[in-house]
Amino acid sequence: MNLAGYEVSDTIELPEKHDYGIGIIGCGGIVNYAHLPAYRSRGLNVVACYDQDPDAARRTADEHGIPHVATSVDELLNRDDIAILDVAVTPWAQMEIAERAIAAGKHLLCQKPFSDSIESAERVVELAAEAGIKIAVNQQMRWDAGIRVAKQLVEQGAIGTPADARIEVSVKTPWHMWPWIAAQDHLEVMFHSIHYHDALRYLFGDPSSVTAFHHKWPNQPEVGETRTLTVFEYDQRDLQTIIDCNHHNWSDDFYARFRFLGDGGIITGTLGVLYDYPTGRVDTLEYQPNHEPRAWHKAELSTWWIPDAFVGPMASLMEAIQTGGEPITAARDNLGTLRTCFAAYESATQKRTVTIPRPEVP
Ligand SMILES: NC(=O)c1ccc[n+]([C@@H]2O[C@H](COP(=O)([O-])OP(=O)(O)OC[C@H]3O[C@@H](n4cnc5c(N)ncnc54)[C@H](O)[C@@H]3O)[C@@H](O)[C@H]2O)c1
After folding, report:
1. Atom 27 of ligand 1: nearest residue by CA position
2. For the domain that residue 303 is a member of, what is the CATH number?
3. Which of ligand 1's atoms lies nearest the C-alpha of 96?
4. Residue 1 belongs to some domain of the structure
5. pTM for the complete prediction?
């Protein structure tokens, strides 16, 4: 579509070869309401699934027509018809599964957060590189319609020099859907805002420092932080980006919006999925060039964060396997996102601005 002279699109292309056999590990909520509906809508080839809870695996296979239910991870690792393992378990179980998959020669799509420690994440990234294994992380917000079109606009220079970027979310999040996440000390940033950290890195590059504030809501049942304010600064650039989240807004005045302002234009929009998670609605995006004050160009968006965007990381992983390149959300790139998250916790705990270590260049 043409938006004020810029060519943009929210459709997600599959690479030429996309019939790789996929084995699922972890058959919980996100696999059932996002991964599998997305893959089915695009005809991807899921051949088997496994969960430590056999009933969850059986239910998932029945509901989504998966031909085989495995009784162990090893069974998936030993199957020649599986090229890609799609892992959606807890982050601490994910690293051990990833190491075994790499040793067995399987490519990986891992869930976010990729790991709960930077050391284990770095180790898995190095093991994969040595073995020639591709790992993508499921930071599928990069394919969410609003962010995808915003990225295309920013790349084409539509907002000029970016100066002030914000993602503002004030919603009532159903944390009860994930009792084990609600029990974490590190909650909001690690399991939710990590998408915004990653999206801002995708749009504007790596920040150099972070100042963060973390709070709870009065008498909240969750253990970790549910209200966060994160401010990123960037070396040598007049750019400041902000993530402002509250997950306990009980009122009907709720919002989930983004606003990217540069000297040449502004992009504003909403993140549809958060208006009624996980059903949601389609995103909105409007663009105003600086030279056309009060003219708002509206994008006609058609793809949804859940499930459509979930095709993106898998498609990108398949593309990387066949071209020898790197997935857009490669695990090595994701180390940068993990570093911003860990630095935000350090900042909030120590009540100071924290310098973010630079991701290593391979
Ligand atoms: N990308 C996203 O937008 C998104 C959204 C929601 C959840 N997630 C992530 O996906 C992961 C799973 O979340 P969920 O919402 O599906 O949780 P869930 O609790 O609904 O399901 C997790 C499933 O994994 C299984 N499991 C746990 N450890 C296992 C192991 N070692 N081996 C095999 N199976 C195991 C459990 O039995 C359960 O069925 C989490 O890391 C979460 O952060 C990502």
Report:
1. 89
2. 3.30.360.10
3. 31
4. no
5. 0.97
Number of domains in the chain: 2
Considering the domain architecture, whether residues 104 and 41 belong to the same structural domain is answered as: yes
pLDDT tens for each residue of 129-179 = 999 999 999 999 999 999 999 999 999 999 999 999 999 999 999 999 899
Predicted confidence band of residue 360 (pLDDT cuts 50, 70, 90) = low
84 lines ligand 1 (CB under 6 A): no
Q: How much of the chain, in percent, has pLDDT values that exceed 90?
A: 95
329 C-beta closer than 6 A to ligand 1: no
Residues 131 and 177 in one domain: no
In testing the pocket of ligand 1, which one of 27, 32, 49, 52 has its CB within 8 Å of the most ligand atoms?
A: 52
Q: Which domain holds residue 78?
A: 14-139+318-323
Atom index in ligand 1 nearest the CA of residue 94 equals 31
Q: Which residue has the tokens 């890609």?
A: 84
Q: Is residue 329 part of a domain?
A: no
Q: Ligand 1 center to residue 180 CA distance, Å?
A: 10
